[in-house]
Amino acid sequence: MKKNHVLLALLWLALPILAFAQSKNDVAAVKQVEALERQRFEAQVKKDYTILEKVFADDLVYTHSNGKQNNKQEYIQSIRDGKSQYDKIDVETLNVRAYNDGKAAVVNGTITITLPNKPDGTPNLAHLKYVVVQIKDPKKGWQVVLWQSQKQPEVKS
Q1: What angle do CA 151, 49, 118 make, to 5 degrees?
Q2: Contact (Cβ atoms closer than 8 angstroms) between residue 113 and residue 128
Q3: Residue ranges of the DUF4440 domain (predicted)?
């Protein structure tokens, strides 16, 4: 009888750990999405439209830090037209959480975007916090369905 109580007590202590354990698919998804986030930022800088067409879902909602929203076609066109220009994107923090057995992921992080210089020649930097939702489509792979960003104050040194 005492053995049953001990086993029951151990199981009771292990329940919180088991409840938060990630599946193998979730762990794999985290690694995939981390790599894809970096690849997407690089594609935005290099204007690699093949990658951008693939990684953005057809129903993308892209909300810029100024509140303006674009769909997939509008956003990619804004890069083509030079309205969205990126000289460099530095990832400062990147946190990925996977859900639904590795079929969905929520990403949050901070980036610094180097934009073309201001008219007076001074550097033009944007510090952003952002949230991304990615869904794993069985045929298309991981795709961004939502982007939301917020400007952060400039860090004075």
Answers
A1: 40
A2: yes
A3: 33-144
Q: Report the candidate in 132, 136, 135 with the shortest Cα–Cα distance to residue 148.
A: 132
> What is the phi/psi pair of residue 91, to 5°?
-85, 120
- Parse the chain into domains and list their residue ranges: 23-151
Please give the backbone phi and psi of residue 67, each rounded to the nearest 5 degrees, phi first. 95, -10
Per-residue pLDDT of the chain (157 residues; tens, 9 = 90+): 555 555 445 445 554 544 444 578 889 999 999 999 999 999 999 999 999 999 999 999 999 999 999 999 999 999 999 999 999 999 999 999 999 999 999 999 999 999 988 888 888 899 999 999 999 999 999 999 999 999 998 766 5
Task: Give the C-alpha separation, 84 to 97, whole Å.
Answer: 28
Distance CA 33, CA 107 (A): 8
Q: What CATH architecture applies to the domain 23-151?
A: Roll (3.10)
Q: How many CA atoms lie within 13 A of 115 on its CB side?
A: 13
Count of CB atoms situated within 10 Å of the CB of 147: 21
